[in-house]
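Input record (one chain):
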Amino acid sequence: MTGSAFLGVALRGSEGSSSPTPEAPSPPPPPAETPSPCVLAVDGSYAARLTRRGGSRHAERWTLDGPEPYAVPLPTDRPEEPGTEVLPLTDGRVLVHRAARELPGALHTFSLLYPTGPGTGELALGSVECAEPGTVLRLLPPSPAGTRAYALAAGPDSTAVWLIAGGDFGPEHLAEVPGRCSGGVWLDATGRMLALDRTRDGRTKTVVVDLERGGEMSPLLQIAEDSDDRLLLADADSGLLLIRSDAPSPGRERLGWGVLGSTLPVRFPECLRVEGCEVTPFAIQPGQILTPEGCVVALRVDGAGGSWLGLWRPAERRLQHVPAPEGWLPGTGRWTREGELHLPCATPAAPCSVARLTAPAAQPASSAPSAALAQPVAEASQRRNASPSAEGGDGPALGPGSDTHEGAAAPSETAGPATRPVPLQQAPLGVTRPRESPRPPLREGEPEPFAGGLLRAARHVVVSAVVTDGR
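The corresponding structure, as predicted from the sequence alone:
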């Protein structure tokens, strides 16, 4: 077993560390062989990846919820191919997706692997055949329903959503979405509402598929008619959305953010543009009820010399660059509610370890605008969590947020959470700020907010069905 690594800056355990500077660090040269991607279970209890031992590949499960992480190899009677996908479930089993590409009409088979003493148990789940040429089948990110797993089969003209694990009779076809879909972001805490980036007629927009209503589909994100808009991440607790779109800069994609339940415009902060680098968010701090602007977001920054970390809060308008820990499996990590980022790492000396990064403290309240400026976002989040009077009645609006307000404060504790799925009507994106929210002056170099188009709400979107554990 290998213990957890502890990093400095705000990375614990490094002597003589200092605060991260706004300049991107000079990362070390990339390793000779790129490590295999790692997938975390939805609750962070397990991870899974392909690893090479003895000249062949096999699945490996990491146990992360104990006193220290450890890896369990899951070899089978045949080596895994490079394109094999793995996904850990919260019960400790690992889903394996294999594709027989040498056969006409690729046949995709699925199995659950689990340790059985000295060997590996394997439970075959069945297969899915993609007969239409050009169809790509891949696993979706781990579902909030931790023992279920889904896959997306994207064809030239339509996309199928499959339930792979957790059903009664093997792979089950759940929905057919017109157009070629990619992405896959869960919008709720139950695994019901799935956001997909759908490409039709040369444009990409985000739609929502309700998996409990026969795949009922509704538009979600449309910033401008001629823009490509994709949803990258969503946090069900705070409502924070991370978006990539070319709406503010036609032909050039930018990172932006919004808030479920707000009618304020999507913002595209200048600090998220790093010259010569690709910036990709991969984790949002959970548990920040009604305070989306205070969530810490972890981003992977890829440059010519390698990959490192970026830390950002919507309220602070600055991206902090942090060197990646040794052996980090890039793009993999998970925030705890307390603001600690867990980063799986693998080195020759420590093939299974977790680096822990403590989130930097938020800016002092004195450097942020008054609480009155933050109230519209908090009120919108409160409306998002308020239960409407009747099914299909006037529900809370769904819209993007604004990073004009720093340090959003939570409303009073009298705001009651919803106790059942919240039905939402289609709502236009507010192209102007609410009258009760005066517009503060922009800081030097801060661009004007992009406030065009529509961000629509899907009917019956489950934003926060039940709030538990005192959140």
